[in-house]
């Protein structure tokens, strides 16, 4: 079924895109005045299109990355057909009920594989709606794969490790001095950063959003940074890691109590089943 809606007609489905549906009744029940970008299966941010292309995109010849590595781009399995079930919204977020209804509909429609690039952070496996519905899918022979998050760890030289968020693509460890200076925690003083944060991981801790801090440390080529913020989803391709404010005292107290504090940031990590015992 190709469900029509804002900027999406049922005629837009084809032999590749054989179905498109959307689920937001519970978001609307929570806020009847909400204004969606596209009240339809249409992608709002491009993330779903991007991840779907990685999995199922057709072959495209003559592709390059700014004229580098020219060749043919394709998804993992370009020959498969695609049914889309939109359950998350840039305005309204992801409600458990809408996600479950969308997955149940996909199973009722007879899909063979479900790909979900969404997650409910902090939910234990036996309470996580993704885990619960995935188990139901497994029972009828449907393969489910989901996002594994983008994590990095900050390990202090006193042995304490903090799990944070990072999109830096490098595999290498960043191990160097850790610098905490109350004058520089805003990470918005370029001259002082250049003078004081050379060959060091600087601690940035000021304000609820970190996009300005990120721009500054990237522009002035700071070696690395620890961003203390609730804004985990801010994207940056820079050797840094974002940790939660609740973990800040561990880092700050260590840096202030040690003559030569050092730290290690490890990138591209995935953690499974935190807070619960893994299945054998």
TrEMBL record:
Entry keyword annotation includes Signal: yes
GO terms, molecular function: serine-type endopeptidase activity
Annotated GO biological process: proteolysis
Pfam families: Peptidase_S8
This protein's UniProt keywords: Signal
Entry-linked InterPro entries: Peptidase_S8/S53_dom, Peptidase_S8/S53_dom_sf, SBT
Keyword S-adenosyl-L-methionine: no
Classification via CDD domains: PA_subtilisin_like (cd02120)
Limits of the Peptidase S8/S53 domain: 38-152
Family: Belongs to the peptidase S8 family.
UniProt protein name: Peptidase S8/S53 domain-containing protein
Organism: Kingdonia uniflora
